[in-house]
Structure formats: C-alpha cells, structure tokens
Amino acid sequence: MACRTCMFRATAGEGYVLDRANTDTCTIYEDPDHKPDDVYWHGADCENYEPADDKPQSLLLGVAVADALGVPVEFKKRGTFHVTTMQGYGTYNQPPGTWSDDTSMTLALADNMGPTKIYIEDLAKSFIAWRDEAAYTPHGETFDIGNATNRAIERMKKGVEPAKAGGKEEKDNGNGSLMRVAPLVFYFFGKDAQERYRITKTVSSLTHAHSWSVTACFIYLEMLNLLQKGRGKKAAYAELKQDFAHYTFLDKDALAQFDRILKGDIAALSESEIRSTGFVVDTLEAAFWSFLTTKNYKDAVLRAVNLGEDTDTTGAVTGALAALHYGLKSIPQEWLDTLVKREEIRDIAIRMPRWDLLPSV
Questions:
Q1: Which of 16, 19, 265, 303, CA to CA, is 20 to 30 A from 255?
Q2: What's the rounded Cα separation, in Å, for the pair 18 and 37?
Q3: Cα-Cα-Cα-Cα dihedral of 66, 67, 72, 77, to 10°?
C-alpha cells in the first residue's frame, strides 16, 4: 500500500496504489516539499527523511549544543571574538559544554508534556525548582536567569496562576519564552492553527505574556512545525509567510513587529542589519537569518553565536531550527561528546510521548 522505502502512501500507477513501489515511482521522493501534512514518516531508510524517533533528540540536543557554544561569549560585542568550536570559561567561568537557562527551561517543558495535555502547574513547579534548587542544570547551579523570567517565577512561587504570571508590559519582551518553547512543535501534531496559538500563548505567558512575545513564539513554532513535516528550508519559509497572511485571529499590531520576517526576506539582509540583543524580535530575526543563510547545523549555530551580545539564546533558538531540519547526524560529534549531561538530555527526549502515533482526543 506504500513505497517500501519510506512507507508513505504516496505512489499510484494507472489508477491503482502500488504496493511494491520504490523511490523510482514515489511522488514524495521526487517532490519532498509536498509531503502530506497528515503523514509522519517512521519507516525505513530514505535519503529525504530521518527516523521520527530522532527528531526530539535532534531538537533538544540542537538547542543544548548551540546554547553551550554561546555561554562563554555572552554579552561580548560582535567582532571582538570568533567562536569556531566548543570552548569554556569566559563570561560565566564554566567548563566547555556547559549550557544555560535556555536549555534548562526547554528541558523542563519537554519533561512536562503529556500525551493529552501540558502539565502547566507542574511546569511552573519545575521552573521554581530550576531557579531555587538547580533542577535541570548542568552542574547543580543556576548561573543565568533573565529579569522578566525571575519576576514571573517569583509570582508563581507566591501563588499567582502560572498562565497569568508573565509580564504583560512592553518592557517585558525579552526572549525568555522564545528560548524554551521549541518542544511544543511535537505536541502540535493534528491541531489546527488557532489551537496551536492558544497552546503557545499559555506556555509563553508563564514568563512572557505580552503579545509581541507570544507572537514571536508562535512564528517560531510554526516554522518548526513546517520543518518537522519535511518541508525544505525555502519552502517552509515561503509557506510560513503565506500562512500568516491568512491568520486573521492574530493581533495585527503584534504581527507588524515582525514585518522583516513575514513580509520581507530576512535572509536577504546583511549581517550589519541583524541585531542580536535580548529583545524578542531581534532574537527571532537573528535566528531566522542565521538558519536561512547557511547550509548545515554547524555553520548556522556558529553564525548565530558570532553575532554577539545574547549569544547563548540566539544560538539556542537557531539550534532548534537547524537541528530539526538537518537531523541529529548534522550536529558535530565532538560537540556532542563535550556536552554536559548529554545522556540526561537524550533521556528526556526519548521519554516524550509520540503524539503522531497517539489516537486523536
């Protein structure tokens, strides 16, 4: 009933489905950017796809590795340094392979996503445990935390409902929710756009509730969603812009902050036009630019980190895009070997439910 190479029901001949088809007759093999949205490959070897089981590992390890590349040079000005591989010490005096709050909070989210719901109350407790007890940290200490995130965690600790704890003012638009939401892409399976937005808003609002931050997270997750469906990089970006032109349920004023991504071509800008501050719009633009102007995971995350300033977060956000697109094997082995608590990150990825195989609820 399908191509025996990758198990897609994607081939037909003379009006009949071919039950022993191969890549010579597979329409998806010939045109992978048109893979059906409702089919998720978990079959055999095919050069166009990677096993679905690798995707959560790719994502979490891709975030952590890029985060660790950026930690030693965080806050340094562009042009005053040049990262080429995993190194240590620097800004926080941490050994090579040490990741920061970006990965810690990403892992906390991944660890609190169930088959049919995201355990928001437990996620809030995990954030508190991370800040106060060094849970989900590489060395048993919390050495980096954003001001808006810290204030939101303090509110949650005092009993404020988690989804109402995040800052709602324009000044609260740091990148502290953008850096940690990537695992939601797997939970999105089978959900429509408005439901995906609702989920994004709830999870972002634990620390960042302003419409700009929520919209940045949604744009990022929609791009990840297209990539995990197998879209080519350029095709995913083009489809993203088409989709957002028709998402009438979004805040128009918030969307206007992202015109350089959604109405222009962020990849056509020069490096001098890309900012890499902790402002959520800058981080999303820098990550998209780094991803779209390179051809592999290594080059994408190094380009992101070498932009300077908020190096760990720009790296982490780029790392999720690049790792999900290029796959686990694209992450340099020597970087993975240096990564602190690599196996613990892998274990969290493996424990994540396979939403693509779960019955609809």
A1: 303
A2: 21
A3: 80
In terms of C-beta density within 10 A (0-12 exposed, 13-18 middle, 19 or more buried), how is residue 91 classed?
Answer: middle
Would you state the torsion angle of the CA atoms of residues 330, 335, 339, 343, taken in this order, to the nearest 10 degrees? 40
Q: What are the structural domains, with CATH classification, of the chain?
A: 31-39+49-355 (1.10.4080.10)
Per the rule left: phi > 0, alpha: psi between -120 and 50, beta: everything else, 354 is beta
Cα first-last separation, the chain: 27
Nearest Cα to 60, choosing from 241, 181, 153?
181
Return all residues near 122 (Cβ < 8 A) that are at least 6 apart: 112
Model pTM score: 0.87
- DSSP symbols for 296-314: SHHHHHHHHHTT-SSHHHH
**pLDDT tens digit string along 194-251?**
999 999 999 999 999 999 999 999 999 999 999 998 899 999 999 999 999 999 999 9
Average pLDDT, the chain: 89
pLDDT band at 25 (very low <50, low <70, confident <90, very high): low
